[in-house]
Write a structure and sequence with these properties.
The protein has 427 residues and is mostly beta strands. 6% of the residues lie in helices and 56% in strands.
Length: 427
Amino acid sequence: MQLKKQEKIRTALTAATCGLLGVQGTEVAAKEGDWDFDSAILYYSEVDRVSAIEPVVTAQRDFGDERKLNLKMVLDALTGASANGATPSDQPQTFTRPSGEGTYTTDADETPLDDTFKDFRVALSSQWDQPLNRDYKTSFGANFSTEYDYLSLSLNASLSRDFNKRNTTLSAGLSVANDTISPDGDIPIPFSSMVIDRGQAGFDQAFDATREDGEDTKTTVDLIFGVTQVISRQTVMQLSYSLSDASGYLTDPFKIISVVGSDGRPVDYRYENRPDTRLKHGLYWQVKHHFARDILDLSYRLYTDDWDITSHTIDFRYRWMFTPSHFLEPHIRYYAQSEADFYQRFFREGEALPEFASADYRLGELTGITLGLKYGLKLANEQEMNLRLEYYLQSGDSTDNDAPGILSEMELFPDVEAIILQFSYNF
């Protein structure tokens, strides 16, 4: 029994490492010769903002001798409103849609949101696990993801080596991705002014003058090195380091920055511009301890990059096994990050423009707290279902006393609240 517990914990930690690299891991292993299926549907909804529905289907087959095939399909349907980066104002604001076709208006004292946000994504992935001998194991995979303005293709591979009677595992992985970005309305020229469609003659020509290429690309190379160590019959620990190098088009073509006058009211809107390279470092630690019945799962992640963002993530789960057939798992996650060195909530009229700037709140200083609860029930014939409900709150520096005019009293970084509901079924 202890060996089975130990192996389950090792498998879960392996899945966590794979997730950092984009490799598809799973905690549930199929019996040799059989297919094992996991299905889930996730509902995510931000208050007054984006909502998403995400069905997921995973299929795994064990071919014996630790050879496994894992297939996964994800569908994403997103609707709602997304913050465009502009500052609020005490007067209504009108913006041109990213496509250049039509406008949308934000009420006074409200955060500007593009309420026509829609997207649909299809993602397919496959992963093959193949041992070389008793101590060495390999894994190879491919991922494909497409949406109306984005295409992503990636390949990954990893190698692991067991030592010390399989109580110690060293692993290394590599992933290479190439993405194509082709936004509706083409890619805006960095820091060009938004032309507002007010029905005036020559709008189409003026809008086209703010556009450059219809599409662009970016390449991302990820490396990960990890060690998994069995501490005791009940405890397994993991430590990993990840390095990610992204280059190409890293700007968000739908984000803008307000140019405000001395009274704090907007006089212009400029399209953002981010650096075309980004180097990320991540250090991840996780421990799982299996008590007589319950399971403790605790992890910490330190992240830093050359955009001057540093973040800390603490994740805690405790699985209460009421009986061998059902459990309750509370979940607490705390996230804190510093702002990017080019994060700028607005431009002041008359000031020289910097080389790079973005008002995207996701690049600002923020904290995020997730509180959740998961219930799991094992059914007959080794089937299992789970229900997860979580609440997410994200907050930052709401006001800026140094902002000009009306902006000093405006909510520049409103809280973002979200509800996450997921149902999964394994058979």
